[in-house]
Amino acid sequence: MTEQAIDKRRIADSFGRAAETYDQAAAFQRTVGGNLLARLPVDFHPADTTDLGCGTGYFTRALQQRYGQPVLGIDLAEGMLRFARMASPGCGPWIAADAEALPVRAGSQDLIFSSLALQWCSDLRSALSEAYKALRPGGYLAFNTLIEGSLGELRQAWERVDGFVHVNRFMPEAELRELLSGTGFAQVGCEIEQHVLHYQQLGELTRELKALGAHNVNPGRPGGLTGRARLRALTEAYEQFRYDKGLPATYQVAQIVLRKGAA
Question: What is the pLDDT of residues 132-188, one digit of tens each?
């Protein structure tokens, strides 16, 4: 994310509280994670794999099924890891850790997979450096992340209501591409997907974001409860985007596959 003062404990607590409801609301997350998984080379057979930001373990299980090897699940949120352990017998181990301080040996991993997790890092460059060190030569880092333009309709609607930061800020595409070019990886692939979800009422979107644990964690967010008058104003402002399919919520997703060069 573009803000430097992100409270990681708040992020971990937010996602931890959402563990019980996450999978029921995560159709979009499964879609984009599946698209990332499909981008890995078909002839690639890693022996040691990490699912970074594993959440409830959905892709930890998918990776283990695909490659037939145990997969290490790492997440910042203890609540997510407790759920993953219960939902994923035979998978793991599971470790609570920060992507910017990976608790794995240098040169020990063939694949690090991370779906919609690294946008919560204060310093994406640091997280990519940690992944690079953890990979063996020839290993892959496959990750996706939301970029600027995601939830743009919600951001614009809130701007019509007040001056607070209500929507998470994401990195511009040009800044992301520049960052990727300086990571040291031998091969860089970055493709942008646009996904537009539709809702009949604004409350469906806001409840989904809460169920995912992905509501606003930026500095500058308003304190306390959002008043009814502001919610009514937000609903009216969001209605400007309605069309025949309903109220749109746009996500811009960067799908990125990086390969570490041979020694």
Answer: 999 999 999 999 999 999 999 999 999 998 867 777 889 999 999 999 999 999 998
Q: Domain with 224 in it: what CATH number?
A: 3.40.50.150
CA distance 218 to 168: 6
Query: 3-state class of 243 per DSSP?
Result: strand
**DSSP letter (8 states) at residue 71:** E
Q: Which residue has the tokens 């749109």?
A: 248
Q: Which structural domain range is residue 145 located in?
A: 8-259
Q: Is 214 contained in some domain?
A: yes
DSSP three-state, residue 115 = strand
Ramachandran quadrant class, 120 (left: phi over 0; alpha: psi -120 to 50; beta: rest): alpha
Domain tally, the chain: 1
Q: CA angle at residue 144 from 139 to 146, to 5 degrees? A: 155
Helix (H) or strand (E) holding 199: strand 187-199
Q: Residues 71-84: what's their mean pLDDT?
A: 92
